[in-house]
Amino acid sequence: ISSQIVAPIASVQVHEGEAVRKGQVLIRLSSASLRAAADQSKSQLQAATKEQAAADSKENLAAATYARYATLNERHSVTPHEFEQVKAQLDEATAASQASAAQVAAAEAATRGAEAANAYTTLRAPFSGVITKKFVDAGGMASPGTPLLQIEDATQREVDLQVNEA
Q1: Which of 10, 41, 90, 101 could form an S-S bond across to 111 if both were Cys, CB 3.0 to 4.6 Å?
Q2: Residues 1 and 26 sit within 8 Å (Cβ to Cβ)
Q3: d(C-alpha 119, C-alpha 31), whole Å
């Protein structure tokens, strides 16, 4: 059993020789920094969502203003310069709205990533078996690929004997 993240080991809840069942909690990793990262990404998502709403509102206003100016332009009631300014404001508002949408998407991805990492703080038994080796204790550091526990399937036993030819 190894961790998928780098984190301090908060507790090891099994001992060598102990029988465990599938899904049983074996190790808990410290999740304080991961929870803080998840909270931060959620806050960034909320801020990005608010910015997106404001940008959409500005884009809607710019589109409505452009539509009015387009009608006035057809009647030659505005100068070409005024119409170009309104068109530029619409283009700017559209670009800002698209940039805000990208920020929301990035914040959503960061939030999902932080929540997924937080889920990796509880290591469970993948199958029922017996803990045959404990490589770490609470207070140690878990990292991907480094064995923390060794577990053997209790239903799959193999006996290795050396027998004299005689």
Answers
A1: 41
A2: yes
A3: 9
